[in-house]
Design brief:
Molybdopterin biosynthesis moea protein, domain 2, Hypothetical protein af1432, globular, binds fe (ii) ion
C-alpha cells in the first residue's frame, strides 16, 4: 500500500484502504478500482490523500497503533457529543454538559486505545489520513489522543494517569461544539473577532465538564489549558512555565504537531520532518524540551507508504521504519518509467545516502 495525492492520475488505481464520508459511512471500499466519478466524489468529500495498492507497493503493510474500527468508533463518539451539546438546526442545544453515557463511551474507547498502544512497544506513529478536511475536529482529536497516550507512556507515567490524559486529549476541543460550525470549518484565515470567538472553545469545553464529579481534574485541565504556552503568550489564562501542568504541556505538543501535519481547507499540510523542526524551534520558548524528546522518539519521520527522494536522486517508497533511527527507514527504490521496484535500501546500513524530502510518484 502507498499514499498518493487525489488527482486524475489516480484513475485506474486500486484503493488499498476503505474511505469514509463525513457521516462515517463507507464511501469507497478497499480494492475499488478508481474511476472518474470516484475522484469527483473524493474531491466533493474533501479527501486529498488516499492509499492505493499497486505493483510497487502491494506487500507494504501499514503500521497503526490503533485499529481502524476503534478510530471510527472514537470519531463517532465525538460526533455524538457534538450532536448532544452543540447546535441543532442552527440553535444551541439547551444542555452544554457532556451526557454521562457519552462520557462513559469515551472512557471505554480510550481504555481500548491505551491497551492497543501498550501492546505495540516497537512501533512508530504513522500519520494516516482516512477522512476529509471537514472531519478535522474529530480526526484531529483522535490523533491527539493516540499521540498523547504514546508520549505519556514514554514518560513513564502510570497507566491510570495515561488514561486520564488520553480522555483529556480526545475531548480537548469539545468546546468547539458550542461554536458555530460554519466558523469552525471556514476556509481561509479568521478575522480578529472570529479568532477571539474561536479562542472561547477552551472555556466552553471547561464549562461542559467542570462540575462533573466523575471526570478527572487531569482531563478537565487539559480541556481548559491546552492553548497555554510556557512564555505566557497562550490562552485563556496566560499561564507561564510550571503553572502549566506537565500533562497539559504534553497534549499541547501533540495538538500542535497534528495541526501542522493535517490537511486543511485553507492550506496544505506540512511534512512530519518540517513539523518536528518547528516544534524543536518552539521548544526554546514555548514548549517543554524534555516532553518533546519523549514525543519525538515515537514519531515516524517518514510515514510508511509515503514516497521520498534520496540525496543521490533515486526515488522510492518507505517500506519500514526503524525506531532507533527514525530518519533512516528502509526505502524501496522504484523505476519511475516502468513503475516497478528495483531494490530495497536500508538507510541504517547504507549511510552514504539519506532522505532529501517527499516526492510525488
Ligand atoms: Fe483547541
Amino acid at each position: 500500500m502507498r499514499i498518493i495525492k487525489v488527482s486524475d492520475k489516480a484513475v485506474g488505481e486500486m484503493l488499498g484502504k476503505s474511505i469514509y464520508s463525513s457521516s462515517c459511512k463507507l464511501l469507497l471500499s478497499k480494492n475499488t478500482v478508481l474511476k472518474d466519478n470516484h475522484i469527483k466524489s473524493l474531491d466533493k468529500n474533501n479527501i486529498n490523500y488516499i492509499y492505493i495498492d499497486d505493483d510497487m507497493s502491494h506487500d507494504i503493510e501499514l503500521e497503526t497503533y490503533v485499529d481502524e474500527s476503534l478510530v471510527m468508533e472514537a470519531v463517532s463518539s465525538l460526533k455524538e457529543i457534538f450532536n448532544d451539546t452543540g447546535f441543532i438546526n442552527g440553535h444551541k442545544s439547551a444542555s452544554s454538559m457532556i451526557p454521562m453515557d457519552d462520557y462513559n463511551h469515551v472512557e471505554k474507547i480510550v481504555q481500548s486505545m491505551v491497551r492497543e498502544v501498550y501492546s505495540n512497544p516497537k512501533m512508530l506513529y504513522n500519520m494516516i489520513e482516512l477522512m476529509g478536511t471537514d472531519m478535522y475536529t474529530y480526526t484531529h482529536s483522535v490523533n491527539v489522543a493516540v499521540l498523547s497516550i504514546l508520549t505519556a507512556k514514554s514518560l513513564g507515567l502510570d497507566k491510570k494517569t495515561v488514561e486520564k490524559i488520553g480522555i483529556g486529549a480526545l475531548l480537548h476541543d469539545i468546546g468547539k461544539s458550542r461554536i458555530d460550525n460554519e466558523l469552525i470549518n471556514k476556509p481561509g484565515k479568521y478575522s480578529t473577532d472570529e479568532y477571539e470567538t474561536m479562542k472561547e472553545h477552551s472555556k466552553h469545553g471547561y464549562d461542559m465538564v467542570r462540575s462533573d464529579t466523575v471526570i478527572s481534574p487531569i482531563t478537565k485541565q487539559i480541556i481548559y489549558f491546552h492553548h497555554e504556552r510556557l512564555d505566557g503568550s497562550g490562552y485563556p489564562e496566560g499561564l507561564q512555565g510550571n503553572q502549566i501542568p506537565v500533562y497539559v504541556r504534553l497534549v499541547t505538543i501533540c495538538d500542535m504537531f497534528d495541526a501542522m501535519i493535517s490537511d486543511r481547507s485553507y492550506r496544505t499540510k506540512m511534512s512530519v520532518y518540517e513539523a518536528l523542526e518547528v516544534l524543536n524551534a518552539e521548544s526554546v520558548y514555548n514548549i517543554d524540551p524534555s516532553i518533546l524528546s519523549s514525543f519525538i522518539e515515537n514519531i515516524a519521520v517518514y510515514t510508511v507508504g509515503s514516497s521520498v527522494q534520496l540525496t543521490d536522486g533515486r526515488v522510492g517508497i518507505v517500506v519500514k521504519n526503524n525506531k532507533a533511527y527514525p530518519t533512516r527507514p528502509v526505502v524501496r527504490i522504484v523505476d519511475l518509467e516502468t513503475k516497478k521496484p528495483i531494490e530495497e535500501v536500508d538507510l541504517m546500513t547504507n549511510l552514504t545516502s539519506f532522505i532529501d524530502g517527499e516526492y510525488e510518484i
